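Thread: Newbie trying to understand structure tokens

Hi all, I'm a second-year student working on a class project, and my supervisor (Dr. K.) asked me to get a predicted structure for one chain before our next meeting. I've only ever worked with sequences, so writing a 3D structure as a token string is new to me. If someone could post the tokens and maybe explain what I'm looking at, I'd be very grateful. Here's the chain:
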Amino acid sequence: MKYPIGFQISADQANSSEQECLPPVRSDEPIKSVVRVAFPDRHMTLSYYNDTFDLHKGDIVYVDGKLEGMRGYVVDVSYTFKIKLSDYKRVIAKADTDVHGEFCLAGSHFVTFDRNALPPSKAITWFRAPLKEEDIFVSGSDNSSFLLSDLKGMKVSPEIAERGHDYYTENRVRYLSLDGTTGYAIVEGGETYEVEFTYMNGEISGLVCNCYCSYPCKHQVAAMLQLRETLELIEKHFASKYKQDGFFAAVHKGTLFSLVVDRKESGGFIL
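---
Reply by user tm_fold:
Sure, no problem. This is what the structure looks like when written as tokens:
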């Protein structure tokens, strides 16, 4: 059940007649532009000034101003313009949707065992703007733990357990990774939430979420259910691959296609 998917072509293919599948060449240098950015959640399309990135149609971006923090999509780029800067807000960040590597089918998700294919630092840019310098996070732990095979050890209420199960079946766990014993998940609810944990010998500890709940939450439940399913599929189909480096990253199929594939005008992948 392994299907390699890569948004690039091999060196041998590059010399073939299929070079039209290559993505457009992007510059490492910023190119000044005025871009129109669509915000589907607000049903709005607005213009912004950009002097920080080489932007193209389909790019996921974040802006300053009233829509700061909201994910937007570039729908038009103009390189010929004259504007009054004080009239325009700016593009302040661009998501890294440059994905290369081998992915395998694992239920509702694609899974890769290549650390460079889709690390957490890249995946999170698809969902939220970069943190500001003044953003400060603190965390604590009571050193409690529970077995992944028995989630009753999470000691959540029946209502939270049910809602977490709903999030899991609705595939709201958009991204999940395990690097050695360090686990990380991105769960989408009303906002984007990040779940962190330690996994060792079938046991979960240090489970935290950056939502406002002061108790085990539905995002954590959903992440644990997805982790259990993904590890079972890996053990069944890809055990040797996982054991090589002790890393995997899983991304929801719909997320990969809607945020990476569907908005690209060119490129290709192998299935």
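A couple of things are worth pointing out once you decode it. The longest strand covers residues 192-200. Confidence is low (pLDDT under 50) at residues 6-23. Feel free to ask follow-ups in this thread.
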